[in-house]
Amino acid sequence: MDLSKYEEKYTHHGTVRDGADDELFMKKAIELSGLAVEHGNEPFGAVLVKDGEIVFTNENQIYTMHDPTFHGEAGLIRRFCAETGITDLRDYTLYSSCEPCFMCSGAMVWVRLGRLVYGASNTELENILGNEGCNCSRIVFDNSFWKLEVSAGILKEQALEILKDYFDKHEKG
Ligand SMILES: [Zn+2]
């Protein structure tokens, strides 16, 4: 019996190691990014998963909440922690339609997130906006005390389509 793939899956810290449903949960995050636009905000969505089930979702709400920090991911973390009292997310996976910014990546460190999965990269987003961009989440994680597992580029074409469509017509907030 070949155990190598099991070893690979279970040798990390924490218990969140199954990526089988990544596309399913990313699809939900991208759906939320579309809903965010319908609700008058920017196209970013986030989904929190534990033990293979969605436990919380959030959309970007920067305009409707008059809060420039109400990003999909930071907003999800704030709301989830406040509503549940849970502040240690090492057993959770967060799915984000786009790579988290410096602020949201920092928030993921403070809650000790177990795993992050994102679609479009920050560089791809910034290129749409005419900027250079950078691998901002990697910069934060590489320089922080908490190391999380990261999977990038999941369903990124679908994530990018919504970003392009929106930022063709709107300025970045
Ligand atoms: Zn952010």
Summarize the structure.
Helix content is 42%, strand content 17%. The chain has seven helices and five strands, in the order ααββαβαβααβα.
Which segments are poorly predicted (pLDDT under 50) over 5 or more consecutive residues? 1-15
What value does the average pLDDT take?
91
* SSE series: HHEEHEHEHHEH
The biggest sheet amounts to: 5 strands, mixed
Bulk shape = globular
**Termini separation:** 54 Å
Give the helix level as a range of percent: 40-55%
Protein structure class: alpha/beta
How does this model look, in words?
The chain has 173 residues and is an alpha/beta fold. The chain is 42% helix and 17% strand. The protein contains seven helices and five strands, in the order ααββαβαβααβα. It has a five-stranded mixed beta sheet, sandwiched between helices. α4 links the parallel β3 (93-98) and β4. α2 packs parallel to α7 (156-167) and α4 runs parallel beside α6 (136-142). The longest helix has 17 residues, at 22-38. The model is unreliable at 1-15 (pLDDT under 50). Zinc ion (ZN) is lined by residues 71, 73-74, 100-101, 103-104.
